[in-house]
Amino acid sequence: QVQFVESGGGLVQPGGSLRLSCAGSGFSLSDEIMTWHRQVPGKTREWVATLFPGGATFYTDSVKGRFTVSRDDAKNTMYLQMSSLNPEDTALYYCRIHGSTTWGQGTQVTVSS
């Protein structure tokens, strides 16, 4: 059974950094196109980043140059390194296999002074 567990969220001041983790089970993360998304209450879920099996990465414009997605194949885990955070990054962050309907519980990121 495919499952994801996101972690690493928290409260951080503007300009700060966080690293989110997405631990996968029931599949090999390195074989899949993986994506990060985020959602603010009352708004639709937003795509943030994509990581291809070969290592190519793509980002939504608002996070380019600030966020970096990577993975550790030995741990079957994907990461989202976030820096220069601002209040507009506050959201519940999720990971998933591209095109899948399976989502984890998400991890909350709050950027506030």
What does this structure look like?
- The chain has strands at 3-7, 10-12, 18-25, 34-39, 46-51, 57-59, 67-72, 77-82, 91-97, 107-111.
- It has 113 residues and is mainly β.
- The strands form 2 sheets. The protein has a 6-stranded mixed beta sheet with strand order 2-10-9-4-5-6, with no helix packed on it.
- A hairpin with a 6-residue loop joins strand 4 and strand 5.
- The chain is globular, with a radius of gyration of 13 Å.
- The mean pLDDT is 96.
Q: Approximately what portion of the residues adopt beta-strand conformation?
A: over 45%
* Contiguous runs where pLDDT drops below 50 for at least 5 residues: none
Rg over CA atoms, rounded to whole Å, is 13 Å
What portion of residues is helical? under 10%
Order of neighbouring strands in the sheet with most strands: 2-10-9-4-5-6
End-to-end C-alpha gap: 40 Å
- What structural class should be given to the helix and strand makeup? mainly beta
Reported for the largest beta sheet, the result is: 6 strands, mixed
- The outline comes out as globular
Count the strands? 10
The H-and-E topology, N to C, reads as EEEEEEEEEE
Our count of helices gives: 0
pLDDT average, as an integer? 96
Write the layout of secondary structure elements.
Layout: E1 3-7, E2 10-12, E3 18-25, E4 34-39, E5 46-51, E6 57-59, E7 67-72, E8 77-82, E9 91-97, E10 107-111
Parallel strand pairs: 2-10
Antiparallel strand pairs: 1-3, 3-8, 4-5, 4-9, 5-6, 7-8, 9-10
